[in-house]
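stage 2 :: seqdesign
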């Protein structure tokens, strides 16, 4: 029996992207497969034309296809690169296989205008802190805002929002979100014991996140901010397949090791077809009692990364003791009412995020077809 296209696609499912540890088919990098008389052609789309991992991918693709048997005489790879910078969601509306195209067709939250993912390459960089304060800043600017704690392995939203004394409520079908600090929020940390969440494996994490997002009574929102787990695991993939995202922001600290992780997170969103809104540098520097600024982690790292990736730097947040203390106390409103400098920084960040979203919208609309009436 001649080897079929679907056998080859199944083989390609065994080849992982070396950076993201997910297979090429899931990442939507395989654009075309053809087989004729033992000659196989595979078209692969990279995120950048000069992908340093191209040779490794080529070897692994060839080995995977050849493992189908001696019938395979030749494996040819056609390379292409995704257009840069990453495009607005509407630009890919005709590619039904893209995770975001699927999500746009079956949007489970049509009442939400903008869904924004907050990601980070690794834990502890202040991703949840940024997500919480971005949500509250947008709400204080007059928007209807929700915050979804997608960090289902280590939810910190119950602490950061001070939800300890709140009980989850709802109907048979829907959870009611918690209404605190001017925003609606939902977190797995109030539904299951967080210690159990830590040991969830892929499919369980997928299901839990999906239900948390879609079984919450969000109502109409201007913004839904989604705090993702750090790194490049299952939740971002589920998210990209399920919700049509306006875009993702990446939080990183200035040091070199954090940049490497952040770059991986950026690549993941590019591969999932999620527009990148920009980078936020957190713990940028520290202002001492002597009013001097100390660059503890080597300030400016995120700016360099943003420039390298051709993305906007959306803002820099210094180390503030209040930010940590108000986070521990579950009182983020105090970040906006206790220290005018901190409030300014957080409000400016939210305004920049809003501005970049509008720019993406305008760029997206410009790429949509228009009617010519003469
Ligand atoms: P992540 O979500 O990336 O794991 P968190 O938001 O939970 O990180 O932050 C980790 C810790 O660092 C928390 O205690 C938080 O209060 C603190 N933190 C985050 N950003 C700052 C900052 N700019 N200044 C002071 N403390 C911060």
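stage 2 :: out
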């Amino acid at each position: 029996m001649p080897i079929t296209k679907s056998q080859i696609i199944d083989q390609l499912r065994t080849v992982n992207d070396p950076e993201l540890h997910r297979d090429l088919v899931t990442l939507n990098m395989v654009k075309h497969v053809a087989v004729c008389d033992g000659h196989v052609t595979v078209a692969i789309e990279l995120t950048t034309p000069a992908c340093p991992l191209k040779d490794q991918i080529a070897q692994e693709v060839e080995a995977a296809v050849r493992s189908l048997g001696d019938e395979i005489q030749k494996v040819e790879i056609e390379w292409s690169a995704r257009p840069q910078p990453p495009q607005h969601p509407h630009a890919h509306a005709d590619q039904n296989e893209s995770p975001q195209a699927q999500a746009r067709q079956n949007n489970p939250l049509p009442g939400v205008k903008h869904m924004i993912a907050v990601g980070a390459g690794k834990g502890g960089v202040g991703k949840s802190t940024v997500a919480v304060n971005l949500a509250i800043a947008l709400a204080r600017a007059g928007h209807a805002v929700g915050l979804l704690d997608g960090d289902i392995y280590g939810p910190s939203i119950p602490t950061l929002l001070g939800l300890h004394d709140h009980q989850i409520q709802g109907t048979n079908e829907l959870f009611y979100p918690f209404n605190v600090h001017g925003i609606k929020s939902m977190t797995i940390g109030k539904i299951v014991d967080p210690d159990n969440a830590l040991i969830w494996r892929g499919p369980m994490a997928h299901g839990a996140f999906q239900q948390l997002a879609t079984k919450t009574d969000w109502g109409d929102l201007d913004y839904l901010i989604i705090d993702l787990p750090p790194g490049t695991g299952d939740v971002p993939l589920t998210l990209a397949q399920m919700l049509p995202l306006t875009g993702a922001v990446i939080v990183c600290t200035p040091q070199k090791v954090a940049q490497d992780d952040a770059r991986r997170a950026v690549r993941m969103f590019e591969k999932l077809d999620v527009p990148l809104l920009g980078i936020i540098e957190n713990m940028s520097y520290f202002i001492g009692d002597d009013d001097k600024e100390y660059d503890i982690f080597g300030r400016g790292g995120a700016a360099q990364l943003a420039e390298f990736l051709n993305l906007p730097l959306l803002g820099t947040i210094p180390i503030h003791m209040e930010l940590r203390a108000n986070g521990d106390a579950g009182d983020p409103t105090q970040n906006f009412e206790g220290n005018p400098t901190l409030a300014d920084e957080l409000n400016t960040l939210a305004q920049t995020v809003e501005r970049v979203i509008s720019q993406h919208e305008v760029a997206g609309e410009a790429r949509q077809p228009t009617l010519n009436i003469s």
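stage 3 :: structure notes
- Confidence is low (pLDDT under 50) at residues 84-95, 366-370.
- The chain has two domains: 5-81, 99-360.
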